[in-house]
Amino acid sequence: MGFRNSQWKTATVLSVVAFTSFASVSAGSGASFQPFTSFAHMRNDSTQTLTWFTDVNWWTMGKWNTDPNTVEGYITKKFGISFEFNVPAQDADTKLHLMLVSGKLPDIISLQDGTTEQELIKSGKVWNLEEFFKKYDPTALTDGTFPPDLVKLEKQTFGGFYSVPSWASTPDMVKKYPPAQKDHLYSANQAVIYNEHIMKQAGLKLADLKTEDGLLKALQKVKSMHLTYKGAPVIPLQIDNSNQWYGSTVQALAQMFGAMPVDQKGNYRDLILSPEMKHAIDFLFKAAQMGALDRSQITLDTNGTNNVVRSGRVFCFIGNTANPHPETMWQTDPTETWVSPGPLLSNPYRRPTFGHAQYGLGWTQTYVSKSVQNPQIVAKWMHWMYSYDGEVLTNYGFAGKDYTVKNGLIYPTAQAKKYPSNYWETTGLGAFWFFNNGPFFSHVSPPPSDESGKMVQQFKSAWPSSPLTYVYDSTPLQMPATLIPPGSQLFQIQQQIRQYEETQVAKMIFAPDAKTENQIYQQTIAQLHKMGLDQLQAVYNQQFHKQEQAFGEHLKGINP
Protein backbone atom coordinates (compact mmCIF):
# COMPACT_ATOMS: atom_id res chain seq x y z
CA MET A 1 0.00 0.00 0.00
CA GLY A 2 1.19 3.59 -0.51
CA PHE A 3 3.05 4.85 2.55
CA ARG A 4 1.51 8.34 2.44
CA ASN A 5 -1.96 6.92 3.04
CA SER A 6 -1.04 3.97 5.20
CA GLN A 7 -1.28 3.41 8.93
CA TRP A 8 2.50 3.63 9.08
CA LYS A 9 2.33 7.39 9.67
CA THR A 10 3.67 8.30 13.07
CA ALA A 11 1.86 10.26 15.74
CA THR A 12 3.96 12.45 17.97
CA VAL A 13 2.23 14.17 20.88
CA LEU A 14 4.29 17.12 21.94
CA SER A 15 3.24 18.15 25.40
CA VAL A 16 5.63 20.15 27.52
CA VAL A 17 6.44 17.29 29.85
CA ALA A 18 7.53 15.24 26.85
CA PHE A 19 10.15 17.82 25.98
CA THR A 20 13.48 17.32 27.57
CA SER A 21 15.31 19.07 24.75
CA PHE A 22 13.94 22.52 24.14
CA ALA A 23 14.31 24.67 21.04
CA SER A 24 17.12 27.12 20.48
CA VAL A 25 17.30 30.70 19.43
CA SER A 26 20.32 30.10 17.25
CA ALA A 27 22.28 32.91 15.68
CA GLY A 28 23.50 30.41 13.11
CA SER A 29 19.96 29.83 11.87
CA GLY A 30 19.63 33.34 10.62
CA ALA A 31 16.57 33.89 12.78
CA SER A 32 15.88 35.12 16.26
CA PHE A 33 12.80 35.63 18.37
CA GLN A 34 11.32 38.93 17.29
CA PRO A 35 9.66 41.60 19.45
CA PHE A 36 5.88 41.35 19.66
CA THR A 37 4.14 42.55 16.51
CA SER A 38 0.37 42.72 16.39
CA PHE A 39 -1.68 42.22 13.23
CA ALA A 40 -4.95 42.99 14.98
CA HIS A 41 -4.96 46.46 13.36
CA MET A 42 -5.73 44.76 10.05
CA ARG A 43 -9.21 43.98 11.37
CA ASN A 44 -12.09 46.33 12.09
CA ASP A 45 -14.05 44.25 14.57
CA SER A 46 -13.31 42.46 17.84
CA THR A 47 -11.54 39.11 18.18
CA GLN A 48 -12.63 36.72 15.47
CA THR A 49 -13.38 33.12 16.44
CA LEU A 50 -12.41 30.55 13.80
CA THR A 51 -13.30 26.87 13.73
CA TRP A 52 -10.57 24.22 13.61
CA PHE A 53 -11.54 20.69 12.58
CA THR A 54 -9.37 17.58 12.77
CA ASP A 55 -9.74 13.82 12.38
CA VAL A 56 -7.09 13.24 15.08
CA ASN A 57 -9.64 12.27 17.71
CA TRP A 58 -7.37 12.45 20.75
CA TRP A 59 -6.50 16.12 20.24
CA THR A 60 -8.53 17.03 23.30
CA MET A 61 -8.21 20.79 23.37
CA GLY A 62 -10.09 22.79 25.98
CA LYS A 63 -11.76 26.15 25.61
CA TRP A 64 -9.48 28.75 24.02
CA ASN A 65 -7.45 30.57 26.67
CA THR A 66 -7.30 34.34 26.07
CA ASP A 67 -4.79 35.03 28.85
CA PRO A 68 -1.91 36.79 27.00
CA ASN A 69 0.56 34.92 29.22
CA THR A 70 -0.40 31.67 27.49
CA VAL A 71 0.43 30.56 23.95
CA GLU A 72 -3.23 30.78 22.95
CA GLY A 73 -3.64 34.22 24.47
CA TYR A 74 -0.47 35.41 22.73
CA ILE A 75 -1.93 34.31 19.39
CA THR A 76 -5.14 36.20 20.14
CA LYS A 77 -3.24 39.34 21.09
CA LYS A 78 -0.96 39.16 18.05
CA PHE A 79 -3.50 38.21 15.38
CA GLY A 80 -6.90 39.07 16.85
CA ILE A 81 -8.15 35.50 16.44
CA SER A 82 -9.20 32.59 18.65
CA PHE A 83 -10.37 29.08 17.84
CA GLU A 84 -13.20 26.71 18.59
CA PHE A 85 -12.15 23.09 18.12
CA ASN A 86 -14.24 20.48 16.35
CA VAL A 87 -12.72 17.08 17.10
CA PRO A 88 -15.14 14.20 16.43
CA ALA A 89 -14.59 11.15 18.60
CA GLN A 90 -15.32 8.95 15.57
CA ASP A 91 -16.41 9.05 11.91
CA ALA A 92 -14.61 12.34 11.27
CA ASP A 93 -14.41 11.57 7.53
CA THR A 94 -18.19 11.16 7.31
CA LYS A 95 -18.80 14.38 9.22
CA LEU A 96 -16.44 16.34 7.01
CA HIS A 97 -18.11 14.88 3.92
CA LEU A 98 -21.48 16.14 5.18
CA MET A 99 -19.95 19.58 5.72
CA LEU A 100 -18.66 19.54 2.15
CA VAL A 101 -22.13 18.67 0.89
CA SER A 102 -23.72 21.43 2.97
CA GLY A 103 -21.11 23.95 1.85
CA LYS A 104 -20.31 24.92 5.46
CA LEU A 105 -16.68 24.03 6.00
CA PRO A 106 -14.60 24.75 9.11
CA ASP A 107 -12.03 27.52 8.66
CA ILE A 108 -8.97 25.36 9.39
CA ILE A 109 -8.91 21.63 8.66
CA SER A 110 -6.13 19.29 9.83
CA LEU A 111 -6.26 15.75 8.47
CA GLN A 112 -4.32 12.51 8.69
CA ASP A 113 -6.50 10.45 6.34
CA GLY A 114 -5.26 10.61 2.75
CA THR A 115 -8.60 9.65 1.23
CA THR A 116 -10.40 12.46 3.02
CA GLU A 117 -7.67 14.85 1.93
CA GLN A 118 -8.20 13.93 -1.72
CA GLU A 119 -11.93 14.51 -1.41
CA LEU A 120 -11.33 17.88 0.21
CA ILE A 121 -8.90 19.02 -2.49
CA LYS A 122 -11.14 17.76 -5.27
CA SER A 123 -14.06 19.79 -3.88
CA GLY A 124 -12.27 23.04 -4.77
CA LYS A 125 -13.34 24.51 -1.42
CA VAL A 126 -9.89 24.88 0.12
CA TRP A 127 -7.16 27.30 -0.88
CA ASN A 128 -4.18 26.43 -2.98
CA LEU A 129 -1.68 27.91 -0.51
CA GLU A 130 0.66 29.11 -3.23
CA GLU A 131 -2.14 31.37 -4.49
CA PHE A 132 -3.22 32.13 -0.93
CA PHE A 133 0.20 33.36 0.21
CA LYS A 134 0.93 35.20 -3.04
CA LYS A 135 -2.28 37.15 -2.52
CA TYR A 136 -2.19 37.75 1.23
CA ASP A 137 1.40 37.26 2.48
CA PRO A 138 3.97 36.87 -0.34
CA THR A 139 7.00 36.73 1.98
CA ALA A 140 5.86 33.29 3.21
CA LEU A 141 7.09 31.90 -0.12
CA THR A 142 10.33 33.85 -0.29
CA ASP A 143 11.82 33.94 3.23
CA GLY A 144 12.51 30.20 3.51
CA THR A 145 9.58 29.35 5.76
CA PHE A 146 8.08 27.21 3.00
CA PRO A 147 11.16 26.39 0.90
CA PRO A 148 10.89 25.57 -2.83
CA ASP A 149 11.52 21.84 -2.46
CA LEU A 150 8.76 21.55 0.16
CA VAL A 151 6.31 23.32 -2.14
CA LYS A 152 7.44 21.08 -5.00
CA LEU A 153 6.95 17.95 -2.88
CA GLU A 154 3.42 19.07 -1.94
CA LYS A 155 2.66 19.58 -5.64
CA GLN A 156 4.02 16.15 -6.55
CA THR A 157 1.98 14.51 -3.80
CA PHE A 158 -1.31 16.42 -3.93
CA GLY A 159 -1.28 18.13 -7.30
CA GLY A 160 -0.71 21.52 -5.67
CA PHE A 161 0.51 23.23 -2.49
CA TYR A 162 -2.80 22.87 -0.68
CA SER A 163 -1.70 22.23 2.89
CA VAL A 164 0.89 22.82 5.58
CA PRO A 165 2.46 19.53 6.68
CA SER A 166 3.46 18.47 10.17
CA TRP A 167 6.86 16.86 10.66
CA ALA A 168 7.85 17.28 7.02
CA SER A 169 11.51 17.14 6.02
CA THR A 170 13.29 18.10 2.80
CA PRO A 171 16.94 18.85 1.97
CA ASP A 172 16.19 22.61 1.90
CA MET A 173 14.62 22.38 5.35
CA VAL A 174 17.58 20.42 6.70
CA LYS A 175 19.97 22.94 5.13
CA LYS A 176 18.18 25.72 6.98
CA TYR A 177 18.02 23.72 10.22
CA PRO A 178 20.98 21.29 10.32
CA PRO A 179 20.84 18.79 13.22
CA ALA A 180 22.51 19.83 16.44
CA GLN A 181 23.39 16.23 17.34
CA LYS A 182 25.17 14.11 14.78
CA ASP A 183 25.06 10.78 16.63
CA HIS A 184 21.27 10.28 16.49
CA LEU A 185 20.46 11.08 12.87
CA TYR A 186 17.60 8.59 12.55
CA SER A 187 14.64 8.15 14.85
CA ALA A 188 11.21 6.59 14.93
CA ASN A 189 8.33 6.61 17.34
CA GLN A 190 7.78 2.90 16.78
CA ALA A 191 9.84 0.72 19.12
CA VAL A 192 10.05 -2.37 21.29
CA ILE A 193 10.43 -1.21 24.89
CA TYR A 194 10.65 -2.96 28.26
CA ASN A 195 9.58 -1.84 31.72
CA GLU A 196 12.72 -2.12 33.83
CA HIS A 197 11.02 -2.57 37.19
CA ILE A 198 9.23 -5.66 35.83
CA MET A 199 12.49 -6.86 34.26
CA LYS A 200 14.00 -6.70 37.74
CA GLN A 201 11.07 -8.57 39.29
CA ALA A 202 11.42 -11.31 36.68
CA GLY A 203 15.22 -11.48 36.91
CA LEU A 204 15.69 -10.46 33.28
CA LYS A 205 18.51 -8.47 31.69
CA LEU A 206 18.43 -6.50 28.43
CA ALA A 207 20.83 -9.00 26.89
CA ASP A 208 18.09 -11.63 27.31
CA LEU A 209 15.61 -9.55 25.32
CA LYS A 210 17.32 -8.62 22.05
CA THR A 211 15.97 -11.47 19.94
CA GLU A 212 12.52 -12.83 19.22
CA ASP A 213 13.44 -16.13 20.89
CA GLY A 214 14.68 -14.31 23.96
CA LEU A 215 11.55 -12.20 24.16
CA LEU A 216 9.22 -15.19 23.75
CA LYS A 217 11.02 -16.96 26.61
CA ALA A 218 10.73 -13.82 28.73
CA LEU A 219 7.01 -13.45 27.97
CA GLN A 220 6.47 -17.05 29.03
CA LYS A 221 8.43 -16.45 32.22
CA VAL A 222 6.57 -13.26 33.13
CA LYS A 223 3.26 -14.96 32.39
CA SER A 224 4.06 -18.02 34.52
CA MET A 225 5.27 -15.95 37.49
CA HIS A 226 1.83 -14.30 37.88
CA LEU A 227 3.47 -11.00 38.75
CA THR A 228 1.39 -8.08 40.00
CA TYR A 229 1.90 -4.35 40.21
CA LYS A 230 -0.06 -2.36 42.77
CA GLY A 231 -2.42 -5.28 43.11
CA ALA A 232 -3.12 -5.70 39.37
CA PRO A 233 -1.73 -8.52 37.21
CA VAL A 234 1.23 -7.70 35.00
CA ILE A 235 0.50 -7.68 31.25
CA PRO A 236 3.38 -9.49 29.50
CA LEU A 237 2.90 -7.85 26.08
CA GLN A 238 0.87 -4.81 25.01
CA ILE A 239 0.51 -3.86 21.35
CA ASP A 240 -0.83 -0.64 19.88
CA ASN A 241 -4.38 0.67 19.72
CA SER A 242 -7.20 -0.12 17.29
CA ASN A 243 -6.03 2.52 14.80
CA GLN A 244 -2.32 1.82 14.90
CA TRP A 245 -1.65 -1.82 15.82
CA TYR A 246 -1.27 -2.96 12.21
CA GLY A 247 1.18 -0.23 11.23
CA SER A 248 2.97 0.62 14.46
CA THR A 249 3.19 -2.94 15.78
CA VAL A 250 2.95 -5.52 12.97
CA GLN A 251 4.55 -3.60 10.08
CA ALA A 252 7.21 -2.10 12.35
CA LEU A 253 8.07 -5.56 13.69
CA ALA A 254 8.20 -6.92 10.12
CA GLN A 255 10.79 -4.28 9.23
CA MET A 256 12.85 -5.14 12.30
CA PHE A 257 12.74 -8.69 10.94
CA GLY A 258 14.04 -7.38 7.60
CA ALA A 259 10.98 -6.56 5.48
CA MET A 260 11.08 -3.90 2.77
CA PRO A 261 8.31 -2.82 0.38
CA VAL A 262 10.75 -3.65 -2.45
CA ASP A 263 11.83 -7.13 -3.53
CA GLN A 264 15.35 -8.23 -4.41
CA LYS A 265 14.76 -7.43 -8.09
CA GLY A 266 13.97 -3.82 -7.21
CA ASN A 267 10.19 -3.91 -7.73
CA TYR A 268 7.51 -2.64 -5.38
CA ARG A 269 6.06 -5.34 -3.14
CA ASP A 270 3.32 -5.00 -0.54
CA LEU A 271 4.72 -5.90 2.87
CA ILE A 272 2.06 -8.58 3.32
CA LEU A 273 3.83 -10.58 0.59
CA SER A 274 7.24 -10.49 2.26
CA PRO A 275 8.38 -13.54 4.28
CA GLU A 276 9.40 -11.19 7.08
CA MET A 277 5.81 -9.96 7.43
CA LYS A 278 4.63 -13.54 7.92
CA HIS A 279 7.45 -13.97 10.43
CA ALA A 280 6.21 -10.96 12.44
CA ILE A 281 2.67 -12.38 12.39
CA ASP A 282 4.03 -15.74 13.58
CA PHE A 283 5.81 -14.07 16.47
CA LEU A 284 2.64 -12.33 17.65
CA PHE A 285 0.67 -15.55 17.15
CA LYS A 286 3.09 -17.38 19.48
CA ALA A 287 2.73 -14.62 22.07
CA ALA A 288 -1.06 -14.88 21.88
CA GLN A 289 -0.92 -18.68 22.15
CA MET A 290 0.92 -18.49 25.46
CA GLY A 291 -1.57 -15.94 26.80
CA ALA A 292 0.90 -13.05 26.77
CA LEU A 293 -1.19 -11.08 24.25
CA ASP A 294 -4.95 -10.55 24.38
CA ARG A 295 -7.22 -9.80 21.42
CA SER A 296 -8.99 -7.03 23.34
CA GLN A 297 -5.85 -4.91 22.96
CA ILE A 298 -6.62 -4.16 19.30
CA THR A 299 -10.08 -2.86 20.22
CA LEU A 300 -8.79 -0.14 22.57
CA ASP A 301 -8.76 3.48 21.47
CA THR A 302 -5.61 5.59 21.80
CA ASN A 303 -6.37 6.76 25.32
CA GLY A 304 -7.25 3.23 26.39
CA THR A 305 -3.88 1.89 25.28
CA ASN A 306 -2.10 4.88 26.78
CA ASN A 307 -3.73 4.28 30.16
CA VAL A 308 -2.77 0.60 30.15
CA VAL A 309 0.88 1.33 29.34
CA ARG A 310 1.05 4.15 31.88
CA SER A 311 -0.48 1.95 34.60
CA GLY A 312 2.99 0.52 35.21
CA ARG A 313 1.90 -3.11 34.76
CA VAL A 314 2.99 -3.64 31.14
CA PHE A 315 6.25 -5.59 30.74
CA CYS A 316 6.76 -5.10 26.98
CA PHE A 317 5.16 -2.56 24.64
CA ILE A 318 5.54 -2.76 20.86
CA GLY A 319 4.10 0.24 19.08
CA ASN A 320 4.12 4.01 18.86
CA THR A 321 5.89 5.20 22.02
CA ALA A 322 4.93 8.82 21.38
CA ASN A 323 1.32 8.17 22.33
CA PRO A 324 1.59 6.73 25.88
CA HIS A 325 4.80 8.64 26.68
CA PRO A 326 5.94 6.02 29.22
CA GLU A 327 9.07 8.06 29.90
CA THR A 328 7.04 10.67 31.77
CA MET A 329 6.06 8.09 34.42
CA TRP A 330 9.58 8.50 35.80
CA GLN A 331 8.79 12.07 36.85
CA THR A 332 6.35 10.87 39.52
CA ASP A 333 7.87 7.44 40.17
CA PRO A 334 11.65 7.07 39.71
CA THR A 335 11.28 3.27 39.52
CA GLU A 336 9.32 3.62 36.27
CA THR A 337 12.06 3.43 33.65
CA TRP A 338 11.90 1.85 30.20
CA VAL A 339 14.53 0.69 27.73
CA SER A 340 14.62 -0.52 24.12
CA PRO A 341 16.85 -3.37 22.93
CA GLY A 342 17.08 -1.78 19.48
CA PRO A 343 15.60 -3.77 16.60
CA LEU A 344 14.19 -7.07 17.80
CA LEU A 345 16.29 -9.64 15.90
CA SER A 346 14.61 -12.49 14.07
CA ASN A 347 15.41 -16.20 13.98
CA PRO A 348 16.55 -17.06 11.34
CA TYR A 349 18.39 -13.77 11.29
CA ARG A 350 17.52 -11.17 8.67
CA ARG A 351 19.10 -7.75 8.76
CA PRO A 352 16.66 -5.15 10.17
CA THR A 353 15.61 -2.38 7.79
CA PHE A 354 14.44 1.19 8.23
CA GLY A 355 13.13 3.58 5.61
CA HIS A 356 14.13 7.19 6.11
CA ALA A 357 12.74 9.67 3.59
CA GLN A 358 14.99 12.58 2.65
CA TYR A 359 11.83 14.10 1.21
CA GLY A 360 8.85 13.46 3.46
CA LEU A 361 5.55 15.13 4.24
CA GLY A 362 5.37 13.73 7.73
CA TRP A 363 2.01 13.07 9.27
CA THR A 364 -0.91 15.53 9.07
CA GLN A 365 -1.84 18.19 6.53
CA THR A 366 -3.59 21.48 7.43
CA TYR A 367 -5.91 23.22 4.96
CA VAL A 368 -7.64 26.62 4.80
CA SER A 369 -11.24 26.91 3.70
CA LYS A 370 -11.96 29.43 0.94
CA SER A 371 -14.85 30.68 3.07
CA VAL A 372 -12.56 31.79 5.90
CA GLN A 373 -13.10 35.37 7.01
CA ASN A 374 -10.18 37.84 7.04
CA PRO A 375 -7.90 35.58 4.97
CA GLN A 376 -5.06 38.09 5.22
CA ILE A 377 -4.94 37.53 9.00
CA VAL A 378 -5.06 33.76 8.58
CA ALA A 379 -2.21 33.91 6.06
CA LYS A 380 -0.06 35.90 8.49
CA TRP A 381 -0.95 33.48 11.29
CA MET A 382 -0.09 30.35 9.26
CA HIS A 383 3.17 31.90 8.07
CA TRP A 384 4.10 32.75 11.65
CA MET A 385 3.14 29.32 13.01
CA TYR A 386 5.60 27.60 10.64
CA SER A 387 8.31 30.21 11.07
CA TYR A 388 11.21 30.05 13.50
CA ASP A 389 9.53 32.46 15.92
CA GLY A 390 6.23 30.60 15.81
CA GLU A 391 7.87 27.23 16.41
CA VAL A 392 9.74 28.60 19.43
CA LEU A 393 6.73 30.27 21.04
CA THR A 394 4.13 27.55 20.41
CA ASN A 395 6.39 24.68 21.46
CA TYR A 396 8.59 26.20 24.14
CA GLY A 397 6.66 29.11 25.59
CA PHE A 398 8.07 32.34 26.98
CA ALA A 399 11.72 33.14 27.60
CA GLY A 400 12.58 33.32 31.27
CA LYS A 401 9.36 31.73 32.47
CA ASP A 402 9.43 28.53 30.41
CA TYR A 403 12.98 28.30 29.09
CA THR A 404 16.44 29.81 29.17
CA VAL A 405 18.95 30.05 26.35
CA LYS A 406 22.47 28.64 26.61
CA ASN A 407 24.87 28.37 23.71
CA GLY A 408 22.01 28.92 21.32
CA LEU A 409 19.86 26.14 22.75
CA ILE A 410 16.78 26.38 24.94
CA TYR A 411 16.45 24.52 28.22
CA PRO A 412 13.23 24.18 30.24
CA THR A 413 13.02 26.05 33.49
CA ALA A 414 12.29 24.25 36.75
CA GLN A 415 8.75 25.61 36.50
CA ALA A 416 8.22 24.23 33.00
CA LYS A 417 9.36 20.78 34.10
CA LYS A 418 6.52 20.73 36.63
CA TYR A 419 3.72 21.47 34.15
CA PRO A 420 1.08 18.71 34.21
CA SER A 421 0.84 16.34 31.26
CA ASN A 422 -2.40 17.99 30.05
CA TYR A 423 -1.03 21.54 30.27
CA TRP A 424 -1.15 21.83 26.47
CA GLU A 425 -4.93 21.32 26.45
CA THR A 426 -5.60 24.50 28.41
CA THR A 427 -2.77 26.80 27.32
CA GLY A 428 -1.70 25.69 23.83
CA LEU A 429 1.93 25.18 24.87
CA GLY A 430 3.11 22.22 22.82
CA ALA A 431 -0.38 21.66 21.39
CA PHE A 432 -0.04 22.94 17.84
CA TRP A 433 2.13 20.18 16.39
CA PHE A 434 0.06 20.38 13.19
CA PHE A 435 2.61 23.07 12.29
CA ASN A 436 5.74 21.37 13.59
CA ASN A 437 8.76 21.54 11.30
CA GLY A 438 10.77 18.31 11.61
CA PRO A 439 14.33 19.56 10.98
CA PHE A 440 13.71 22.56 13.25
CA PHE A 441 13.54 20.31 16.31
CA SER A 442 16.66 18.37 15.37
CA HIS A 443 18.43 21.68 14.84
CA VAL A 444 17.51 23.29 18.12
CA SER A 445 17.41 20.47 20.66
CA PRO A 446 20.26 20.02 23.14
CA PRO A 447 21.16 16.56 24.40
CA PRO A 448 18.66 15.30 27.00
CA SER A 449 19.64 16.09 30.56
CA ASP A 450 17.18 14.12 32.67
CA GLU A 451 16.15 10.49 32.77
CA SER A 452 12.93 10.92 30.82
CA GLY A 453 14.68 12.76 28.00
CA LYS A 454 17.36 10.12 27.80
CA MET A 455 14.69 7.44 27.61
CA VAL A 456 12.91 9.18 24.72
CA GLN A 457 16.12 9.49 22.74
CA GLN A 458 17.01 5.87 23.44
CA PHE A 459 13.54 4.59 22.40
CA LYS A 460 13.49 6.53 19.17
CA SER A 461 17.05 5.91 18.02
CA ALA A 462 17.62 2.32 19.19
CA TRP A 463 16.15 0.67 16.07
CA PRO A 464 16.83 3.14 13.22
CA SER A 465 20.27 4.26 14.44
CA SER A 466 21.48 0.77 15.34
CA PRO A 467 24.61 -0.33 13.43
CA LEU A 468 22.69 -3.54 12.70
CA THR A 469 19.97 -1.69 10.79
CA TYR A 470 20.04 -1.13 7.04
CA VAL A 471 18.79 2.42 6.46
CA TYR A 472 17.54 3.34 2.98
CA ASP A 473 15.97 6.43 1.44
CA SER A 474 12.26 5.65 1.24
CA THR A 475 11.34 8.83 -0.67
CA PRO A 476 10.53 6.98 -3.94
CA LEU A 477 8.08 4.76 -2.04
CA GLN A 478 5.85 7.66 -0.99
CA MET A 479 2.92 7.53 -3.36
CA PRO A 480 1.18 10.77 -4.42
CA ALA A 481 -2.31 11.19 -3.02
CA THR A 482 -3.47 11.88 -6.59
CA LEU A 483 -2.17 8.56 -7.94
CA ILE A 484 -5.44 6.71 -7.39
CA PRO A 485 -8.49 8.99 -7.78
CA PRO A 486 -11.29 8.57 -5.21
CA GLY A 487 -14.29 6.81 -6.69
CA SER A 488 -12.26 4.94 -9.29
CA GLN A 489 -12.35 1.16 -9.52
CA LEU A 490 -8.74 0.97 -8.42
CA PHE A 491 -9.55 3.16 -5.43
CA GLN A 492 -12.27 0.72 -4.39
CA ILE A 493 -9.80 -2.15 -4.75
CA GLN A 494 -7.28 -0.26 -2.62
CA GLN A 495 -9.79 0.40 0.16
CA GLN A 496 -11.13 -3.15 0.17
CA ILE A 497 -7.65 -4.66 0.26
CA ARG A 498 -6.55 -2.38 3.09
CA GLN A 499 -9.50 -3.35 5.26
CA TYR A 500 -9.36 -7.05 4.36
CA GLU A 501 -5.62 -7.26 5.00
CA GLU A 502 -5.91 -5.86 8.50
CA THR A 503 -8.92 -8.01 9.37
CA GLN A 504 -7.19 -11.18 8.20
CA VAL A 505 -3.92 -10.45 10.00
CA ALA A 506 -5.88 -10.10 13.24
CA LYS A 507 -7.43 -13.52 12.58
CA MET A 508 -3.98 -14.99 12.03
CA ILE A 509 -2.52 -13.60 15.24
CA PHE A 510 -5.41 -14.85 17.33
CA ALA A 511 -5.99 -18.13 15.48
CA PRO A 512 -6.69 -21.16 17.72
CA ASP A 513 -3.65 -23.11 16.46
CA ALA A 514 -0.69 -22.93 14.07
CA LYS A 515 -2.40 -24.97 11.37
CA THR A 516 -5.34 -22.56 11.28
CA GLU A 517 -3.01 -19.53 11.31
CA ASN A 518 -1.15 -20.83 8.25
CA GLN A 519 -4.39 -21.72 6.47
CA ILE A 520 -5.73 -18.21 7.03
CA TYR A 521 -2.46 -16.76 5.71
CA GLN A 522 -2.55 -18.86 2.52
CA GLN A 523 -6.22 -18.09 1.97
CA THR A 524 -5.57 -14.38 2.55
CA ILE A 525 -2.75 -14.18 0.02
CA ALA A 526 -4.83 -16.03 -2.58
CA GLN A 527 -7.81 -13.77 -1.96
CA LEU A 528 -5.70 -10.61 -2.14
CA HIS A 529 -4.56 -11.60 -5.62
CA LYS A 530 -8.18 -12.22 -6.62
CA MET A 531 -9.20 -8.83 -5.19
CA GLY A 532 -6.73 -7.02 -7.46
CA LEU A 533 -3.53 -6.71 -5.43
CA ASP A 534 -1.41 -7.40 -8.53
CA GLN A 535 -3.16 -4.62 -10.44
CA LEU A 536 -2.66 -2.22 -7.55
CA GLN A 537 1.00 -3.17 -7.18
CA ALA A 538 1.59 -2.62 -10.90
CA VAL A 539 0.41 0.98 -10.55
CA TYR A 540 2.54 1.50 -7.46
CA ASN A 541 5.55 -0.12 -9.11
CA GLN A 542 5.34 2.11 -12.18
CA GLN A 543 5.12 5.23 -9.98
CA PHE A 544 7.89 3.92 -7.72
CA HIS A 545 10.30 3.60 -10.65
CA LYS A 546 9.37 7.07 -11.91
CA GLN A 547 10.15 8.49 -8.50
CA GLU A 548 13.41 6.55 -8.29
CA GLN A 549 14.52 8.38 -11.41
CA ALA A 550 13.21 11.73 -10.17
CA PHE A 551 15.03 11.47 -6.84
CA GLY A 552 18.11 9.66 -8.10
CA GLU A 553 17.57 6.52 -6.04
CA HIS A 554 17.57 2.83 -6.94
CA LEU A 555 16.29 0.48 -4.26
CA LYS A 556 16.45 -3.29 -3.92
CA GLY A 557 15.36 -5.52 -1.07
CA ILE A 558 18.28 -6.86 0.95
CA ASN A 559 16.44 -9.90 2.33
CA PRO A 560 14.37 -12.58 0.56
TrEMBL record:
Keyword Signal assigned: yes
Q: Which Gene3D superfamilies match?
A: Periplasmic binding protein-like II
Provide the alphabetized UniProt keywords.
Signal
**What is the protein named?**
Aldouronate transport system substrate-binding protein
What InterPro entries does the annotation carry?
A: Bact_solute-bd_prot1
The signal peptide here is 1-27
